[in-house]
């Protein structure tokens, strides 16, 4: 048992050979599943009667409505579903459009294209952005031949990537924006603010970020973000009508009750404290209470870290993981953003040495998207949330330890 704990602490169990082997196995299985699924489809509809890309069909249908000058109608569930059925067939199940009008800036241009072309542009375009950002985070260590040969394989084989590909979702875009904003923050604060503001297309990602920026005194970034969000609201109101914003706000409470509180989206797919309580039979009030406690604890610890002298890699990792923990509405495809903290800690660790449990917690974070839905659905085990929480605590402890060591060094001086 002592040897097991030592290896878990040091991370020496995760050798380069194992990293390559795990990545190749996951990638091969994932690609084979995608090829078979596409091969069994007919006219863009899979064997279960769902459009290929599932959730992307929602984006495409909403974008087509925006092109016709009727963006507000996308927030009417019945009208939106009717458009999906018109495009993909009368048996098409409903995929809701829950995004603010900001996302029409992407959905509408894509709807100009035939669906297969739009889907390909969306998936491969955002995948390229994701890989570019991860590669940039690792730029300082890519001179190492082992990193240069393997980083792309590991980033592509990350199981959350395959989950996102299967759903046609926006995890790649979220990861790219989040990672690029954190990369820009130290030297290009205005660009960082613009990139953080672009994440407003997913409002649930905005719970923790403002507190971190305030704690660090990043005033130029905050101003840039606020002005960018205001600009996006004005532009989208002009392009798609102010009524699109009114419809979005009016639909928010219905979406919350239908898709979050009642579990229509599936509690096994959600990766939050709220979902755990509901998955285990708890009521809505208890779920919100537990989520509020988790969110407050996460925000308080992020504020502490971002006010401290912790290094940028640990601050970035803590903010990304904390953003997921602080929100009640995080789905398994959103876990693509976890590639960002893994990359930041890998870059720092390869340059300066890994701290206790960093390798093991990062390894767990890498594999867990493959298991989240099955573990929650069949075993009632919230594996995704637990892995993120364990990673978060590991990073927080290391940040705290660093500060204690610095205080001791100062006292000795």
- Indicate the structural class: mainly alpha
- Write the H/E string, N to C: HHHHHHHHHHHHHHHHHHHH
- Give the beta-strand count: 0
Q: Could you tell me the radius of gyration in angstroms?
A: 21 Å
Number of helices: 20
List the helices and strands and how they pair.
Elements: H1 2-10, H2 16-40, H3 55-67, H4 77-88, H5 104-111, H6 115-137, H7 145-157, H8 159-167, H9 171-184, H10 189-198, H11 209-215, H12 219-240, H13 242-261, H14 273-279, H15 284-307, H16 312-326, H17 339-352, H18 358-367, H19 372-379, H20 383-412
Give a structural overview.
It is a single chain. This protein has 413 residues and is an all-alpha fold. It has one domain (16-402). It is 71% helix and 0% strand. The protein is built from 20 helices and no strands. Helix 11 (209-215) packs parallel to helix 15 (284-307).
Task: Please describe the structure with a list of short key phrases separated by commas or semicolons.
413 residues, mainly alpha, disordered C terminus
Please provide a brief summary of the model:
By secondary structure, the protein is mainly alpha-helical. It has helices at residues 2-10, 16-40, 55-67, 77-88, 104-111, 115-137, 145-157, 159-167, 171-184, 189-198, 209-215, 219-240, 242-261, 273-279, 284-307, 312-326, 339-352, 358-367, 372-379, 383-412.
């Amino acid at each position: 048992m002592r040897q097991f704990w030592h290896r878990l602490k040091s991370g020496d169990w995760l050798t380069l050979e194992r990293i390559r082997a795990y990545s190749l196995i996951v990638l091969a299985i994932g690609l084979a599943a995608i090829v078979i699924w596409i091969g069994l489809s007919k006219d863009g509809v899979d064997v279960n009667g769902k459009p290929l890309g599932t959730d992307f069909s929602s984006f495409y249908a909403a974008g087509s409505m925006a092109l016709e000058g009727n963006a507000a109608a996308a927030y009417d569930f019945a009208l939106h579903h009717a458009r999906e059925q018109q495009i993909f067939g009368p048996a098409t199940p409903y995929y809701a459009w829950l995004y603010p009008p900001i996302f029409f800036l992407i959905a509408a241009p894509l709807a100009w294209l035939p669906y297969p072309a739009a889907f390909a542009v969306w998936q491969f375009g955002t995948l390229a952005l994701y890989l570019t950002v991860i590669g940039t985070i690792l730029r300082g260590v890519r001179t190492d031949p082992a990193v240069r040969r393997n980083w792309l394989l590991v980033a592509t084989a990350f199981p959350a990537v395959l989950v996102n590909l299967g759903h046609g979702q926006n995890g790649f875009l979220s990861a790219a924006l989040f990672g690029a904003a954190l990369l820009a923050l130290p030297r290009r604060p205005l660009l960082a603010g613009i990139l953080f503001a672009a994440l407003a297309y997913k409002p649930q990602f905005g719970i923790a970020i403002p507190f971190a920026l305030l704690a660090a005194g990043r005033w130029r970034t905050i101003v840039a973000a606020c002005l960018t969000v205001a600009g996006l609201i004005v532009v989208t109101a002009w392009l798609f009508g102010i009524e699109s914003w009114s419809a979005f706000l009016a639909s928010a409470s219905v979406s919350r009750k239908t898709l979050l509180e009642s579990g229509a989206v599936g509690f096994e797919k959600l990766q939050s404290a709220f979902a755990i309580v509901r998955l285990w039979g708890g009521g809505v009030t208890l779920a919100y209470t537990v989520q509020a406690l988790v969110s407050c604890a996460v925000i308080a610890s992020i504020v502490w870290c971002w006010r401290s002298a912790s290094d940028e890699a640990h601050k970035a990792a803590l903010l990304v993981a904390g953003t997921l923990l602080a929100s009640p509405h995080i789905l398994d495809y959103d876990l693509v953003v976890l590639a960002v903290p893994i990359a930041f800690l890998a870059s720092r660790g390869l340059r300066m040495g890994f701290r206790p449990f960093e390798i093991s917690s990062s390894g767990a974070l890498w594999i867990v998207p493959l298991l989240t839905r099955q573990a929650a659905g069949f075993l009632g085990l919230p594996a995704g949330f637990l892995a993120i929480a364990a990673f978060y605590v590991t990073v927080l402890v290391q940040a705290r330890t660093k500060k204690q060591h610095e205080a001791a060094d100062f006292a000795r001086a």
